[in-house]
Write a structure and sequence with these properties.
elongated
């Protein structure tokens, strides 16, 4: 068995791969939307624009890296990661609704 066969993640069964990608998407989505909320606070409160730019670049690169890693594992893994990001968005919006009411 060569090294490539030992580290090839596409050989993992789907019942392992899809939940891992979903949880990864959930973590990436939480980080993305948390950074988005902080960026909005900085802009509204008149904070440092350089910090807002850094947060924006960081969250976009986090999302792009997460989706790129999911693409390497296949289409279903990408959909599972995207579903995780959407669930993180729903959770963050739900929490914002609880805080404001």
């Amino acid at each position: 068995m060569d090294e490539r066969a030992m580290i090839d993640l596409t050989t993992l069964p789907l019942f392992v791969l899809l939940p891992v990608c979903f949880l990864g998407g959930l973590l990436v989505g939480y980080g993305y939307f948390r950074a988005l909320r902080e960026t909005a606070k900085i802009i509204v409160n008149g904070g440092e624009p350089l910090r807002a730019i850094a947060l924006t670049l960081g969250r976009v690169s986090l999302l792009a890296t997460g989706f790129f890693m999911a693409v390497l594992l296949g289409g279903l893994a990408l959909l599972a990661a995207f579903a995780g990001v959407l669930c993180a968005k729903w959770i963050m919006l739900r929490r914002m609704g609880d805080i404001q009411t």
